[in-house]
């Protein structure tokens, strides 16, 4: 199957009530074996918001027998034998989250629960689950190919900084010793791979699929005419050759003397085609695993280069040495077209957890069971976020008809539905059908964000299709209300006041999530987020339209503490802004360096990969110490009495003791006598305050 061939080329096969998790279920379906066994660190919920269900149903629709091994006990290979030997391969994922992010907080503390497990029980998956599951699968059935994927594999596909071990680790592919890694949105690569394996092609010969990575011998090339571009020189970071301008005019023809042989002028279209063909057989060599482990600047450069080679319209293959072998990464997958998105989300999902879980409460399911995913991808490019690295910058949207059908499915098939759709969204609430105005410009673009430092003039920002969708969703019989739960990109929203009016009048449940992240230019520039002025413009619209609708509604702003590039003074200024604007934020967290994010490269290297790294690059302030990280978080919760001693000490050190006092201009009050008593004495008695509610800790 060609990588651009529609994934729904074949008619769908008959669907099982659920993909089987036991031999008994297989026998009921008349199966003697599975073609593919998918292993996941999550509970199996047969819904398109959960990766294993989505790819499992897709392969089922192609005629394959797919089984699920969910949250196996990794201490033994026996649970991996539950469905027998798969005919084609094991597909391994950690689940919808990276297993380390799932288990540990930004302060490296173990989380007390797991939203993807029945009962919210923690500890049902191992650390670095992809590696552990792959090892057990090989132990269970030697010789069966192992393919790894989903977000943990996707974001760890090259040598990467790992926050929990505080070191640069090898590609997860090298550690898992799998035959193939599929990164990004996997539908095209997975269907092509499965078809070719079913046709008898050995997995070791499948080296041409977009969105895949594999280990190979040093110096391997797909063909003799491939060109290797050395990008390991830190004085020459980023793209090595300029991109052709698709609108370049042909130069005027010079006069030709009598008898002279005319010079052939190559047309612009031919020049562009030639350059594209050359790029298609080029590979960029990143600094080796050993080099990026030893040299922070080279690590930042490798991160910069990978992100510059992320547009599927112009990205080249990448190669990175790991010891005596090479890690080869093909260009990213091509986005799904609207009809393909409709096909994937319209498959025969049961839309509920597998019956094996009984009535167990699964928090992640409870959160999304009345919501609809209308798009994927994000062109925001926020450096602390991994959505772009996994789903890409090109927005892939479903059709209006497909979304309305899913709303009807929720109404008719989801137990407990009382008339409220809790979200029409995705990675961002309001990027539905937003795209570059010209496909040729989109293919050639190398920008890391379409909205930073300002909104690109080539980006369409018309929210009309989304506004129309909201209106039609409200008209579906049986639907009483549609709210928006996904985070809003407010700098885009203010470009379309009619959209903001529609949203605020009909689709806010009293609170609307919004993420300015900071107020100060220093950290905002390292986050690639807009200035606080964009937030102010949106807040004015929000309040005006709420008042016009006769509703009392509030914005819930999210902020990040201790992000690279943030000083103590930046956090103080943010705290003063919060107080001046009447915000008392409760849910705050310190920056968490997740694999592959650009902000993580800043954290690991102390350099800014958003800029040239010549002569060592721009240094970035990093907040590493536990006490300083606690201080930055305390500034966000300046109103919490538990934080006042730490804040008073910091304000004195910063020469801002004038902010300690009991007046309206002060940030924290002066200490009282009671505060000098031991904590146990201060909190003795009932421990209840404010109408019987226990004070949050």
Describe the structure.
The protein has 697 residues and is α/β, with parallel strands linked by helices. It has 25 helices and 25 strands. The protein has a ten-stranded mixed sheet with strand order 3-1-4-5-8-9-13-12-11-10, with helices on both faces.
Describe the structure using short key phrases.
pyruvate-formate lyase- activating enzyme; 697 residues; 32% helix; Rossmann fold; disordered C terminus; three-stranded parallel sheet
What is the gist of this entry?
With 697 residues, this protein is an alpha/beta fold.
Topology record:
Elements: H1 23-28, E1 36-40, E2 45-46, H2 51-61, E3 66-70, E4 89-92, H3 99-103, H4 129-140, E5 146-148, H5 150-155, E6 160-162, E7 167-169, H6 172-176, E8 180-182, H7 187-198, E9 212-217, E10 227-230, H8 268-280, E11 282-285, H9 289-294, H10 296-308, E12 317-322, E13 325-329, H11 338-345, E14 352-353, H12 363-368, E15 371-373, E16 375-376, H13 387-391, E17 396-397, H14 400-413, E18 420-421, E19 423-425, H15 439-444, H16 464-474, E20 481-482, H17 490-493, H18 497-506, E21 511-517, H19 521-527, H20 532-548, E22 554-561, H21 568-580, E23 589-590, H22 598-605, H23 626-636, H24 644-653, H25 679-682, E24 688-689, E25 693-694
Helix pairs in contact: 10-22, 16-18, 18-20, 21-23
CATH superfamily heading of one domain: tm_1862 like domain
The CATH class designation of one domain is Alpha Beta
Evaluate the radius of gyration: 27 Å
Number of strands: 25
Terminal Cα span: 56 Å
Q: The CATH topology of one domain, please?
A: pyruvate-formate lyase- activating enzyme
């Amino acid at each position: 199957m060609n990588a651009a061939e529609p994934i729904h080329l074949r008619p769908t096969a008959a669907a099982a009530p659920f993909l089987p998790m036991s031999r008994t279920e297989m026998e009921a379906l008349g199966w003697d074996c599975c073609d593919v066994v998918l292993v996941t660190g999550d509970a199996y919920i047969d819904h398109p918001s959960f990766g294993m269900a989505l790819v499992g149903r897709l392969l089922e629709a192609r005629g394959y027998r797919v089984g699920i091994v969910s949250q196996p006990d990794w201490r033994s290979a026996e649970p991996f034998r539950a469905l027998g030997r798969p005919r084609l391969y094991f597909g391994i994922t950690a689940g919808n989250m990276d297993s380390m992010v799932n288990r540990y907080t930004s302060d490296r503390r173990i989380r007390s629960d797991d939203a993807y497990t029945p009962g919210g029980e923690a500890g049902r998956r191992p650390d670095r689950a992809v590696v552990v599951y792959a090892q057990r699968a090989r132990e269970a059935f030697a010789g069966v190919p192992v393919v790894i994927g989903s977000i943990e594999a996707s974001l760890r596909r090259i040598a990467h900084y790992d926050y929990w071990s505080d070191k640069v680790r090898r590609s997860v592919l090298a550690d898992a010793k799998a035959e193939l890694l599929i990164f990004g949105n996997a539908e095209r690569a997975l269907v092509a791979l499965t078809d070719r394996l079913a046709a008898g092609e050995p997995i070791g010969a499948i080296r041409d699929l977009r969105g895949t990575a594999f280990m190979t011998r040093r110096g391997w090339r797909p063909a003799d005419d491939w060109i290797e571009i050395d990008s390991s020189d830190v004085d020459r970071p980023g793209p090595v050759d300029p991109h052709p301008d698709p609108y370049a005019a042909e130069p005027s023809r010079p006069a030709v003397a009598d008898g002279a042989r005319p010079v052939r002028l190559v047309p612009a279209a031919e020049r562009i085609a030639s350059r594209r063909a050359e790029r298609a057989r080029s590979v960029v060599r990143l600094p080796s695993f050993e080099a990026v482990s030893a040299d922070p600047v080279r690590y930042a450069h490798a991160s910069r280069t990978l992100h510059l080679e992320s547009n599927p319209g112009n990205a080249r293959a990448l190669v990175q040495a790991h010891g005596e072998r090479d890690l080869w990464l093909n260009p990213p997958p091509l986005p799904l077209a609207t009809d393909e998105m409709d096909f994937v989300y319209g498959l025969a999902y049961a839309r509920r957890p597998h019956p094996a879980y009984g009535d167990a409460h699964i928090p992640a399911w409870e959160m999304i069971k009345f919501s609809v995913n209308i798009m994927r991808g994000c062109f925001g490019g926020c450096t602390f976020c991994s959505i772009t690295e996994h789903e890409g910058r090109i927005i892939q949207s479903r059709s209006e008809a497909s979304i309305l059908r899913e709303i009807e499915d929720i109404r008719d098939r989801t137990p407990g539905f009382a008339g409220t759709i809790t979200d029409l969204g995705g990675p961002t609430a309001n990027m539905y059908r937003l795209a570059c105005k010209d496909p040729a410009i989109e293919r050639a673009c190398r920008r890391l964000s379409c909205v930073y430092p300002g909104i690109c003039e080539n980006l369409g920002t018309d929210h009309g299709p989304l506004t129309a969708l909201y209106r039609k969703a409200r008209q579906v019989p049986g639907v009483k209300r549609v709210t928006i739960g996904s985070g809003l990109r407010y700098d885009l929203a203010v470009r379309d006041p009619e959209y903001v009016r529609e949203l605020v009048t009909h689709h806010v449940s009293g609170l609307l999530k919004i993420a300015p992240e900071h107020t100060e230019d220093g950290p905002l520039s390292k986050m690639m987020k807009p200035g606080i002025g964009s937030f102010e413009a949106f807040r004015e619209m929000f309040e005006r339209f709420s008042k016009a609708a006769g509703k009392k509604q509030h914005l819930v702003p999210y902020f990040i503490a201790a992000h690279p590039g943030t000083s103590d003074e930046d956090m103080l200024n943010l705290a003063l802004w919060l107080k001046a604007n009447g915000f008392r934020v409760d849910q705050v967290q310190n920056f968490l360096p997740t694999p592959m994010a650009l902000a993580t490269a800043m954290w690991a290297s102390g350099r800014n990969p958003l800029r040239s790294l010549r002569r060592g690059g721009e240094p970035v302030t990093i907040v590493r110490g536990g006490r300083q990280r606690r201080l930055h978080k305390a500034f966000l919760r300046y109103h919490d009495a538990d934080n006042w001693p730490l804040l008073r000490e910091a304000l004195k050190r910063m020469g801002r003791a004038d902010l300690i006092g009991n007046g309206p201009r002060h940030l924290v009050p002066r200490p009282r006598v009671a505060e000098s008593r031991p904590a146990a004495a201060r909190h003795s008695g009932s421990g209840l305050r404010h109408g019987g509610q226990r004070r949050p800790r």
